[in-house]
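To illustrate the input format used throughout this study, we show a single complete record. The first block contains the structure-token representation of the backbone; no residue identities are included at this stage. The design step must infer an amino acid for every position from geometry alone.
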């Protein structure tokens, strides 16, 4: 073959490849999309908090900072029990309070005497952060650390020199314990404290005191893959309440520039912002008990499995992450009552979502992009987030119908957008075909990574989704139907 004929053939081949790629090329992602890291972060869905420190022994929620380190003395500390409990409940990460507002450090920091090194635990040779990170690594959980910016013990808190101390602590935690997937910056800045024996009130300006931009840059310098949590991101943000509830409209996009850590607009954080220019994952923190720390007086107040299930629907089911706190007791283990509630919660979720009744259905749509099977409606049934049904541009309503082989009973509907392309849907309706014809069972706004809807039980062989508004061309990755476990029954609202 001559050289020019060969080049010609190559060119024709390249052009052919180009044409077959055109379908994908023309389906444009939104301007704001998640990084691979944040996509993986969101897919963890349920993670855990461990609030454990000197407060566990003083029966307080906020220590003053003048507690003696000698009070920290767990009798049977078993960090593996925390990790195994969390893992069995399906958690993918645990976040430990390495230092809470009272300033006591669970690791032997070289920059303060207010730490575990002056406690009776292992005769001052213990390091709970080391035990925790090792146990998480051993059992395949990601590690998160909470390091309270507010420090009621430190003499310099409120002065510029404290920031240097705080950065040194960050350095210790992010250089000595292996990979850390998340660092949690709390927004609380209360005022009074021990502060090196001065017992006074110290006020700081949350907008300027910490110099967050420089702290965040330092954190990323020490651990490039870490996710930073605060009221205002930059990677993960607070949901605006401590009940574990995201808004029923919830956008993963927000504008972080106007937010001040510690002074946030909680309503804004609870709904996100359809016009937001930053992709910041929403995280719903809540404790399994009324308090964040263990108090024996709250043994009878542990949330029931049904309450936990309700929280799951209002967090994971509304496009956010659930961060559930499991506070170890004075023995240093998660109490049996909490373990039992958690385990039943997990069983209920597993029972409900074990059987996707939509599998085997026939999917039809009023439109699919360029009539190309890559964008066909059947992709909503493959339980794969990367394949999706998509319409041609500006098709509203975009309607997708599932016809099941036979009528089934269901009361949970799961929808997922292919969020690597951005979050799009802002209005949708679900109808089922009943004996009287089509009836609306749910009207909603956002979907995002995952939306799970609770409806009153219906029996039907057809369900229709109509997407009536979106900020870009419609795409849907998954559409599932389930019947809830009968153990959910205590909390069963008519509609989510
Ligand atoms: C709050 C803190 O003040 C609580 O003690 C707890 O740590 C919670 C997760 O965040 O702001």
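Output of the design step:
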């Amino acid at each position: 073959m001559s050289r020019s004929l060969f080049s010609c053939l190559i060119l024709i081949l390249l052009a052919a490849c180009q044409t077959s790629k055109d379908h994908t090329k023309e389906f444009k992602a939104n301007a704001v999309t998640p990084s691979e890291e944040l996509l993986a972060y969101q897919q963890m869905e349920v993670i855990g908090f461990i609030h454990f420190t000197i407060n566990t022994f003083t029966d307080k929620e906020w220590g003053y900072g003048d507690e003696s380190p000698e009070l920290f003395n767990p009798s049977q500390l078993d960090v593996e029990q925390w990790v195994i409990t969390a893992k069995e409940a399906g958690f993918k990460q645990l976040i430990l309070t390495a230092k809470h507002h009272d300033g006591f450090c669970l690791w032997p920091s070289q920059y303060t005497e207010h730490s575990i090194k002056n406690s009776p635990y292992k005769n001052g040779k213990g390091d709970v952060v080391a035990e925790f990170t090792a146990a998480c690594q051993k059992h395949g959980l990601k590690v998160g650390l909470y390091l309270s910016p507010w420090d009621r013990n430190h003499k310099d808190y409120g002065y510029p020199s404290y920031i240097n101390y705080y950065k040194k602590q960050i350095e210790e935690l992010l250089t000595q314990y292996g990979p850390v997937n998340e660092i949690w910056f709390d927004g609380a800045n209360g005022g009074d404290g021990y502060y090196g024996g001065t017992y006074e009130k110290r006020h700081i300006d949350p907008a300027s005191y910490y110099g967050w931009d420089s702290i965040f840059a330092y954190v990323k310098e020490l651990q490039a893959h870490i996710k930073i949590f605060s009221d205002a991101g930059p990677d993960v943000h607070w949901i605006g309440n401590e009940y574990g509830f995201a808004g029923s409209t919830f956008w993963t996009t927000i504008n972080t520039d106007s937010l001040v850590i510690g002074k946030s607009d909680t309503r804004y954080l609870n709904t996100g912002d359809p016009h937001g220019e930053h992709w910041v994952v929403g995280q719903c923190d809540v404790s399994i008990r009324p308090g964040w720390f263990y108090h024996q007086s709250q043994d009878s107040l542990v949330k029931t499995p049904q309450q936990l299930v309700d929280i799951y629907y209002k967090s994971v089911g509304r496009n956010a992450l659930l961060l559930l706190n499991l506070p170890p007791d004075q023995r240093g283990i998660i109490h049996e009552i909490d373990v039992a509630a958690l385990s039943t919660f997990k069983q209920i979720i597993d029972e409900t979502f074990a059987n996707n009744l939509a599998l085997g259905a026939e999917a039809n749509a009023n439109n699919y992009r360029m009539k190309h099977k890559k964008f066909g409606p059947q992709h909503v049934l493959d339980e794969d987030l990367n394949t999706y049904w998509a319409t041609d541009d500006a098709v509203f309503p975009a309607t997708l119908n599932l016809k099941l082989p036979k009528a089934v009973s269901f009361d949970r509907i799961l929808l997922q957008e292919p969020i690597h392309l951005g979050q799009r849907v802002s209005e949708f309706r679900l109808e089922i075909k009943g004996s009287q014809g089509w009836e609306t069972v749910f009207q909603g706004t956002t979907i995002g990574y995952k939306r799970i809807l609770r409806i009153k039980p219906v029996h039907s062989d057809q369900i229709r989704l109509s997407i009536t508004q979106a900020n870009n061309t419609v795409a849907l990755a998954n559409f599932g139907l389930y019947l809830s476990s009968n153990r959910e029954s205590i909390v069963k609202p008519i509609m989510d």
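Structural context for interpreting the output: The pocket of beta-L-fucopyranose is lined by residues 61, 186, 188, 285, 292 (CB under 6 Å). Confidence is low (pLDDT under 50) at residues 16-21.
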